[in-house]
Amino acid sequence: MALTNTLRIFKNVKKLNYSFNSCIISRHLSLVPGEPPGPSVRTSIPGPNSKKMMADLDKIQYANAIWYFTDYKKSIGNYIVDADGNRLLDVFSQISSLPLGYNHPDLHRVVQDPDNQIAFINRPALGIFPSQGWPEKLTNSLLSIAPKGHTQVNTMACGSCSNENAFKATFMWYRNKQRGGAPITEEENSSCLINREPGSTPLTIMSFKDTWLSNHNAFEIDIQIRFSRPGLANCQFPTVQDHLKSSTREPKRGSQMFGEVEEEFLERSTKPGIICGRCWSASPFKPQGGDNHASPDLFQAVEEYPTKKVSALIIDEVQTGGGATGKYWCHEHFHLPEPADFVTFSKKMLTGGFYSLPEFRPQQGLKIFNTWMGDPSKILLLEKVVQVVKRDNLLNLAQESGRKLMDGLKDLSKRYPQHIKNNVRGIGTFCAFDLSSSQKRDETFVRLQQNGVQSGPCGDQTLRLRPSLIFQPHHADIFLSILEKVLNDIKSV
Ligand SMILES: Cc1ncc(COP(=O)(O)O)c(C=O)c1O
């Protein structure tokens, strides 16, 4: 189905001036030179070129999760361009993993710098042969934005192995405490090789339900998850949406909500699988879980509970970290009385890894280890990202653009209650909203795409927004205007 050019929508976008950082940004002044004024859609999505490539790929691998093929050369700033020349405002940004949008000139300069090219060509086994200057690179990038109290950092390749290695470090910390610091015995050494106690333990990590770490059938059915999700115990997770639903509109105190978690913790700790770590995202959700955002007082309450002392707190900031909430670390919004024990990251940070407090540093070598343990070329890019975020004040921008998004979404939820539920939620640009049914969510997602917006579905009826850090208020206007058109189109069907 050929689609009409959606540029006409932009005639309806009010011409506005935005006051930001004491300078005026018109809707055409983008932080990335050459960014177009709006989307343009010429074919159905996926278009014929994408469909042909999907068929080619499908001969080699199962490819049905692909939405379309992308022309990364033409994609720029907040706009992704597909293989059929359709240009979409990207508020999903590669599953939330683009810090500075597409083809940011400062990142191009990093790659073009001859001094940096060595790092792109020679990927080291970082645990054994780091390049000279590696400690300074980590200090200038990851440690310069570390959460308070976190002086230790380990790099990893992706979010999953960042969490897995934080689990490993937690288990080691716990067992070391149990042994009272005594050396590992011969029996422990030999029994772990045949997966028997005492070397292998029945230790467990507890996570909330509906976080990325909770068991999720699409990823796990038929698969024996032995290590990556070590016997996760799931607790029902109190959400901001629950607050919004409650008749009183009064948020429950975090300690009251956390009581349920503690009961579960205590009950399970008396069983053979002892819980040694608790893990949750700062804004806990799992993509299929529907972007469930916890309330700040829940996190504050976590710190007050006595069982905190016998377990480690791992905050998974793989998706929430990197600045979209207006702070590098979402949990910084929650003013925890003490730092979390571990904070894991990936996505917008360009490298995976985890921070930890000094107490959790493993006492033996080759424990937190794999071949690559990250990639120094990504650290070069991250170093630049950190500079650009500071120079262009992008954390403030995330707050400013986020306010615009949230105000607009709340307004639409009031004016289109038949479509959008009254549970719009978000911090900075890290926002989500629910449609009134799964079918309507799917339809909204497709219609947004056809009108030039790439959003991200999650849960049964949620759309999540994960723009990159160069998303400005005028992009929010474009998004909201297209969303409103889509809501009207749905209404008229
Ligand atoms: C909160 C969270 N943790 C961990 C992961 C896993 O990261 P990766 O896909 O890089 O392995 C994700 C992925 O979306 C996530 O959202």
Automatic annotation (TrEMBL):
From what organism does this protein derive? Daphnia galeata
In terms of Pfam families, this protein maps to: Aminotran_3
Q: What's any GO biological process attached to this entry?
A: gamma-aminobutyric acid catabolic process
Any single GO CC term annotated in Swiss-Prot or TrEMBL for this entry? mitochondrion
Q: Can you say what this protein is called?
A: Uncharacterized protein
* GO molecular function terms listed in the Swiss-Prot or TrEMBL record: pyridoxal phosphate binding; transaminase activity
Task: Tell me which domain of life the UniProt entry assigns to the organism this sequence originates from.
Answer: Eukaryota
Q: Which family does it belong to?
A: Belongs to the class-III pyridoxal-phosphate-dependent aminotransferase family.
Q: Which UniProt keywords apply?
A: Aminotransferase, Pyridoxal phosphate, Transferase
Essential cofactor(s): pyridoxal 5'-phosphate
PANTHER family xrefs:
4-AMINOBUTYRATE AMINOTRANSFERASE, MITOCHONDRIAL (PTHR43206:SF1), AMINOTRANSFERASE (PTHR43206)
